[in-house]
Design brief:
- The protein is mainly alpha-helical.
- It folds into 3 domains: about 5-45, no CATH class; about 50-135; about 140-230, no CATH class.
- It contains 12 helices and 6 strands.
- The protein has helices at about 50-70, 75-85, 85-90, 95, 100-115, 125-135, 140-155, 190-195, 195-200, 200-205, 210, 215-225; strands spanning about 10, 25, 25-30, 30, 35, 40-45.
- The strands form 3 sheets. It has a two-stranded parallel ribbon. A two-stranded antiparallel ribbon has the order 2-3. It has a two-stranded antiparallel sheet with strand order 5-6.
- Strand 5 and strand 6 (about 40-45) form a beta hairpin.
- Helix 1 runs antiparallel to helix 2 (about 75-85) and helix 1 packs parallel to helix 5.
- The radius of gyration is 21 Å and the shape is globular.
C-alpha cells in the first residue's frame, strides 16, 4: 500500500521533545500540534480538548436533527433514537479520552441535558428527574462503568490486551477487600494520573466481592448497576 505523503505529518509529544525534522521519500513532513488516530483527536500534550469539542458539536447537531425529523413526539421513542444515533458519538473509545476536569465533563453532559429538556413534558423537570423518567444514566456515570467493564475484560483475558501493560495486582494481604485489588502508582504528572490505567484504581478496589468474582461479563455489568458509584463522580446535580 502506497503512503499518501500529503496526509502525513509529525506530532512531537512532550515539552522536552527535541522536535527532529523527519522526511519520507525525500519529502519533509510538516509538524502538527493535533492528530487524529482512529477517530480520536489528541494534541502534542496528550490532551483531548479538541476531541471533546468535535464530538460535542456533532452530537448537538445530530440530536437537533432527531427532534426536527421525527413527527412522533413520544419522549421514550425519541430517547431510543438518541441512544442509537447520538450517544455513541459521545462514548466511542471513552477509556482512552475520558475527561476528568469539571468543564470538560459538563461540556459532554450538556448534549444529553439539552436533548432531554427539549422533549415533550420534560421542560419543568430538573436533569436528574428527566433521566429517571427516561431510564437514562448520566454520561459521566456511563463512562465510569465502561472503564470498570474494560478493566474486568483485561483482568479476565476477555480482550487481547496484556494485563501487565496496564495494571499490577496488589501484594498486600492484610487489607480488607477482594483479592484482585490493584496497585495505585505514584504519578508525577496529570497525563499519567488521569490515564486509563490509573484513574479508576480506587473505584475498582472498592467494588464488592460479588461483583468482582462474577463468572461472566454480562453478570458483571448487571451487578455493577446496583453498586453506588456516586462518590467517584465529579459532577453533582
Amino acid at each position: 500500500m502506497c503512503i499518501s505523503l500529503n496526509k502525513c505529518s509529525v506530532l512531537h509529544v512532550g515539552k522536552s521533545n527535541p522536535r527532529h525534522v523527519y522526511s519520507l521519500r525525500a519529502v519533509l513532513l510538516p509538524g502538527a500540534t493535533v492528530a487524529t488516530d482512529l477517530g480520536v483527536i489528541v494534541d502534542d500534550k496528550l490532551c483531548f480538548t479538541s476531541h471533546y469539542a468535535s464530538i460535542v458539536k456533532k452530537a448537538h447537531q445530530r440530536a437537533s436533527l432527531i427532534l426536527r425529523c421525527f413527527k412522533c413526539r413520544d419522549p421514550l421513542f425519541l430517547t431510543k433514537a438518541y441512544i442509537v444515533y447520538v450517544r455513541p458519538l459521545l462514548e466511542y473509545c471513552s477509556p482512552v479520552w475520558a475527561p476528568v476536569y469539571i468543564k470538560d465533563i459538563a461540556l459532554l453532559e450538556s448534549v444529553q441535558r439539552r436533548f432531554t429538556k427539549r422533549l415533550t413534558g420534560m421542560k419543568d423537570h430538573n436533569y436528574i428527574q428527566r433521566l429517571s423518567k427516561l431510564n437514562l444514566d448520566t454520561l459521566e456515570a456511563r463512562r465510569l462503568k465502561t472503564d470498570l467493564v474494560t478493566m474486568f475484560k483485561i483482568l479476565n483475558n476477555l480482550i487481547d490486551v496484556d494485563f501487565r501493560d496496564f495494571f499490577s495486582l496488589s501484594t498486600i494481604a492484610h487489607t480488607r477487600g477482594h483479592r484482585f485489588k490493584l496497585n495505585k502508582l505514584v504519578c508525577k504528572n496529570n497525563v499519567r494520573l488521569f490515564s486509563f490505567s490509573c484513574r479508576r484504581i480506587d473505584c475498582w478496589n472498592s467494588l464488592p466481592d460479588d461483583v468482582i468474582y462474577c463468572e461472566s461479563l454480562q453478570s458483571f455489568k448487571t451487578r455493577l448497576n446496583y453498586v453506588d458509584l456516586s462518590r467517584y463522580l465529579i459532577l453533582s446535580f
